[in-house]
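Anyone able to model this chain together with flavin-adenine dinucleotide?
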Amino acid sequence: MLDYLALDDDYTAEERQVRDAARRFVDREVAPDVGDWFEDGRFPERLVGEMGDLDFYAPTLSWGDLPGLSETAYGLLMRELEAGDSAVRSMASVQGALVMWPIAEYGSDAQRERWLPGLASGDLVGCFGLTEPEHGSDPASMETRAESVGDGDGYRLFGTKTWITNAPIADVALVWAKLDSGTDGEADDGDGPVRGFLVETDADGVETPEIGGKLSMRASSTGQVVLDDVRVPEDAVLPGVEGMKGPLSCLTQARYGIAWGAVGAARDCFEVAREYATDRDQFGGPIGRFQLQQEKLAEMATQITTAQLLADRLAELKERGELRPQQVSMAKRNNVRTARDVARTAREMLGANGITTDYSPMRHAANMETVYTYEGTHDIHTLILGEDLTGISAFE
Ligand SMILES: Cc1cc2nc3c(=O)[nH]c(=O)nc-3n(C[C@H](O)[C@H](O)[C@H](O)COP(=O)(O)OP(=O)(O)OC[C@H]3O[C@@H](n4cnc5c(N)ncnc54)[C@H](O)[C@@H]3O)c2cc1C
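re: yes, here you go
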């Protein structure tokens, strides 16, 4: 497999073990059927427990039996899962980085005891509700409200979250809502702080309908979380964080995984195209002997290697506690764009065969449209970098 600068040689034995375990899992459990899942538009729920058994959810945490792996090991896991399909990596990312991580970081001891073991094993599924129908790139404008019932009797939640990975199969939704001083269930003008609420999806007033008609990330379950006067207890709120720092810090964790995952999707496309170029004969020999095809392979290999270098450096900085969100934005932005470009080029090299689910590049290309959009669109990461580089915000 492509590792042009022998970067894998520098990983520890434990990191290579994690990489190999994830590769075996993808080879055995994902690759044979993922084309069918994509065509059928369904996420195979059996994978949830299998990934739990393999410690694929939040393995960097040291809580309980979680293994406390290095940031590089986590990145390698994301890379190998996304080489299988972005839907599989998304499942692990959401569960680990967007649900378990905030519970571990901002939750109470009781919340950790209540949720982390089941989420780690895959007996429970979590989802992360930030985006709303009218508020995507600008989540601070969210309309979802939490009214305090008073006297420590908990909260009433109102609002709709949309485009939520795992929502239709989730047991618990981490819902970000603004605290509201109103008492009549109507959203008022109050602009209280954003808080995270752990909402059980079987509670009265919660619905999690599936979103159909997706042409991207088809093997992932995506839905809404509709909250119609949902009563949650006082201890449903994450005590350790207030304001947009809550959801944004979770997104930094998940985007780190995406920066690595995109390398895996791109590498898989490259490998398929390289093999095809040496097998497929036209004009009396393999198409890989044409300079036009070699140029494509050379460019893909260079871009993938560059993306991997960025991911490796992020891991080093994260391990030292020095990683800034803007650096993660640079890597998410670059690596996903690389994967999107590589997937399209690989698809092109496969000719007509490239448009089928028999080969991975078009599936990856379709998935990359989502990955390019979620966790901050490419444009939004451009603006984050622009602000960081100039000190001037161009968001509004
Ligand atoms: C399959 C899938 C799974 C998802 N999973 C989750 C999930 O689990 N949880 C969750 O909370 N969300 C999830 N999302 C939602 C995702 O994060 C949002 O789609 C994303 O933030 C963009 O929001 P939007 O779609 O409303 O686009 P908009 O914000 O409406 O943007 C539309 C276009 O305008 C551009 N734009 C917006 N603002 C600016 C600006 N200031 N300057 C220049 N251009 C701008 C954008 O780049 C984009 O091209 C998911 C999305 C998909 C497709």
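The chain has a mean pLDDT of 96.
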